[in-house]
Amino acid sequence: ERGGYDHYMLKEINEQPEALERTINGRITDDGRVALADFPPGTFDEVSEVHFLSCGTSHHASMYAQQLLRDRGVPAYAFTAGEYATTPAPVSEDTLVIAVTQSGETADTLASLRSANERGARTLTVTNVVGSTAAREADEALFIRAGPEIGVAATKTFTSQVAALLLVVERLTVDITGTPSEDSEAVLTALRELPDAVDRLIGSSIASSLAPRYAGSEQHFFIGRGVAYPVACEGALKLKEISYEQAEGFSAGELKHGPLALVTPETPIVAVFTGKHDTKTLNNVEEVRSRGASVIGVAPESADHVAAAVDEFLPIPDTNPDVAGVLANVQLQLVSYHVANVLNRSIDKPRNLAKSVTVE
Ligand code: M6R
């Protein structure tokens, strides 16, 4: 049933190329435009601001989309659903509230979605499960079509969420600002090529040989900027969730405002690069290396300036920077998986956690 893999998590990591194929199938035209059957051009003309509601890994996918929308001039805010349910942000009928939830059953996300519905916002869910509560209760639904995910750790649903959200981002940008984003064509082309790129990455990753050297470190920090920031947070969440190692993700700029005090030679730092904002993140790499920490750089394979500045280099296939974060995430999934495997953890069912969290 695990198709020859030791764990569902590894099976699901390997299923990402096909899952991504399904996510984008029929949703990008040959001439590089978004084609979402239920959301034709003009669907979001009236929207003035976007709120994302979600938890855990889904929150990181939402943060990813938030960064992209802001880059494109669209006001966007990713909230953790548990907080939004108690302290909701003001909405109007022009606010599009997007509940991002793999299961469609997460109690915090449903509570915050209900609050948005009651207060008159327009609501949309981006979910994996047709017929889920979120799909029934939101005004509209977009399905990510990742296929069933058994491992408690979200992997293929994260990549499919980000891919689906990239399509939503491009549609929103045209509808709200009146023009496609500058890079729209390049981003959509990169998205079409993403399944192949993920396949190549998985086939060539050296994460399994790196893992034994870093498993059991005192703590692990993950840093990044722009879309690499949510990817860093997701890398840390995945590592703590399945390996029980101490791990935190920070925006690279925040490091020097406190966390740097914890950095020692026993703190491996994973720095995520996409080809945008690299120079600034390299400055942060210098800050930690001068404290004796080892840096693992995850970056596009042609980024020689990164390779030269880090202790270990984990390359990802070259692609558009807005899409590169997805590939960096796959590399980090593999790092977490192999660290947890070295430590002999219960990878598919980590202690204390449930696949779907149905209490607030
Ligand atoms: O089903 P959802 O996407 O709403 O789930 C949200 C979180 O509980 C979930 O992503 C959790 O953080 C994962 N187990 C992380 O791998």
From TrEMBL:
Function of the protein:
Catalyzes the first step in hexosamine metabolism, converting fructose-6P into glucosamine-6P using glutamine as a nitrogen source.
Q: Which residues form the active site?
A: K355
Drop me one GO molecular function for this one.
glutamine-fructose-6-phosphate transaminase (isomerizing) activity
Tagged with keyword Metal-binding: no
Query: Could you tell me what reaction this enzyme catalyses?
Result: D-fructose 6-phosphate + L-glutamine = D-glucosamine 6-phosphate + L-glutamate
Q: Which GO terms describe its biological process?
A: carbohydrate metabolic process
> Which protein, by its recorded name, is this?
Glutamine--fructose-6-phosphate aminotransferase [isomerizing]
Q: Which residues form the SIS domain?
A: 40-179, 210-350
Q: Which UniProt keywords apply?
A: Aminotransferase, Cytoplasm, Glutamine amidotransferase, Repeat, Transferase
Can you say where in the cell this protein is located?
Cytoplasm
Taken from the UniProt entry, a GO cellular component term is: cytoplasm
Q: What is its EC number?
A: 2.6.1.16
What quaternary structure, including any partners, is listed in this protein's UniProt entry? Homodimer.
Q: What range of the parent protein does this fragment cover?
A: 245 to 604 of 604
- Give the highest taxon in the source lineage: Archaea
